[in-house]
């Protein structure tokens, strides 16, 4: 028997979430964002749930190639564009759409067109403007000039105006950036894309023509707080499960685990579960971080080690060797676990280690 830790993946939940988000964004078209190997779920695993997406957005060429090989015929957007001149051969071969966020990318496009585009291939682009995130995007003062130059190139196809919000999970977090964006593009005829997951859920005025569903597609909250999405109908697409592999009965005033961080205040029954930081579970998880044992809420006690965690079994007398442990998923939301660990659900999903077996349900 293999080590009993499994990430259960539910493409049906991805399909369900996609339909909810698509309805919210209607009539905008929707990208399913699959970067970071579908947020740790594995692109191949969740691909069957993507039929109703209008496009797929990825980070790198390997992801884009895989999606084409899986049979995707519609638009694929490279969210950070291309990273070298030679990437453009693959962009062309696989008919990819690139985000343009810097003028050096346009220079590479010019060079590629002059050298290799004798047949008049047209490149579709998403032109990204920096409206306040200050990460990627053209400066607002140069945006109009860059746009006009692109518009005049007969080998540039569709241009879509794009930006990204820094605080879309806050009530008025998009106001300043949205105003800048609207001022910049209000007289320009092309389609627009600004909405990430938070904006899809909470800022209808940002939906425009294309929205980009990332973390919400996998059933976690863009704010990192589960109560913000608990009425949305979104379902978790990943459940991380393990089993109890040992049980100890320890006396009062006994230290548990590395560093003796936790000391019992009474006689206790504890369980050891096959899950540790080498599986992607956060080492900094504090005492009291919730887990579910045999569908009963319990807690971590003692420091997370490389391969094991220690759980309080005092109130779960039925728990024993082989008992099921849910680290997060259907009954214990990933956002709650992440909050206890001082992080967000995004990180926990992406951190699940390759050694953790994934099963599709």
Structure report:
This protein has 361 residues and is an alpha/beta fold. It folds into two domains: 208 residues, Alanine racemase (TIM Barrel), CATH 3.20.20; 123 residues, Lyase, Ornithine Decarboxylase, Chain A, domain 1 (Beta Barrel), CATH 2.40.37.10. 27% of the residues lie in helices and 25% in strands. The chain contains eleven helices and 19 strands. The strands form three sheets. Strands 1, 11, 14, 15, 16, 17, 18 and 19 form an eight-stranded mixed beta sheet that branches. It has an eight-stranded parallel barrel with strand order 2-3-4-5-6-8-9-10, surrounded by four helices. Strand 5, helix 6 and strand 6 form a beta-alpha-beta unit. Helix 10 crosses helix 11.
Largest sheet: 8 strands, mixed
Tell me the name of the CATH class of the largest domain.
Alpha Beta
**Number of DSSP E strands:** 19
Please tell me the total number of domains.
2
Looking at CATH, which topology of the largest domain would you report? TIM Barrel
The portion of residues forming beta strands comes to 15-25%
Look at the helices and sheets and give the structural class: alpha/beta
Which spans of ≥5 residues are poorly predicted at pLDDT below 50?
A: none
Outline type: elongated
Terminus-to-terminus distance: 20 Å
């Amino acid at each position: 028997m293999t080590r009993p830790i499994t990430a259960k993946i539910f493409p049906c939940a991805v399909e369900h979430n996609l339909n909810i988000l698509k309805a919210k964004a209607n009539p905008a078209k929707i990208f399913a964002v699959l970067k970071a190997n579908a947020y740790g779920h594995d692109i191949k695993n969740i691909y069957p749930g993507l039929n109703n997406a209008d496009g797929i957005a990825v980070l790198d060429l390997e992801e884009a190639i895989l999606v084409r090989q899986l049979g995707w015929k519609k638009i694929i957007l490279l969210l950070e564009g291309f990273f070298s001149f030679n990437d453009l051969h693959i962009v062309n071969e696989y008919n990819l759409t690139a985000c343009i966020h810097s003028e050096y990318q346009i220079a590479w496009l010019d060079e590629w067109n002059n050298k290799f585009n004798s047949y008049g291939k047209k490149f579709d682009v998403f032109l990204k403007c920096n409206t306040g995130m200050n990460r990627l995007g053209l400066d607002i003062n140069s945006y109009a000039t860059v746009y006009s130059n692109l518009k005049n190139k007969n080998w540039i196809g569709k241009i879509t105006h794009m930006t990204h919000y820094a605080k879309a999970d806050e009530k008025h977090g998009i106001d300043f950036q949205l105003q800048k964006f609207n001022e910049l593009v209000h007289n320009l005829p092309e389609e627009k894309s600004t909405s990430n997951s938070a904006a899809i859920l909470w800022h209808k005025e940002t939906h425009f023509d294309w929205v980009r569903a990332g973390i919400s597609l996998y059933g976690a909250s863009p704010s990192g707080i589960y109560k913000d999405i608990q009425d949305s109908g979104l379902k978790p697409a990943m459940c991380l499960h393990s089993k109890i592999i040992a049980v100890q009965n320890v006396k009062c005033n006994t230290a548990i685990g590395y560093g003796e961080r936790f000391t019992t205040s009474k006689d206790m029954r504890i369980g050891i579960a096959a899950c540790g930081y080498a599986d992607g579970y956060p080492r900094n998880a504090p005492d009291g971080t919730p887990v579910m044992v045999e569908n009963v809420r319990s807690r971590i006690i003692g420091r997370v080690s490389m391969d094991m965690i220690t759980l309080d079994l005092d109130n779960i007398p039925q728990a024993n060797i082989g008992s099921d442990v849910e680290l997060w998923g259907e009954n214990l939301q990933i956002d709650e676990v992440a909050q206890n660990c001082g992080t967000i659900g995004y990180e926990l999903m992406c951190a699940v280690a390759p050694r953790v077996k994934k099963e599709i349900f």
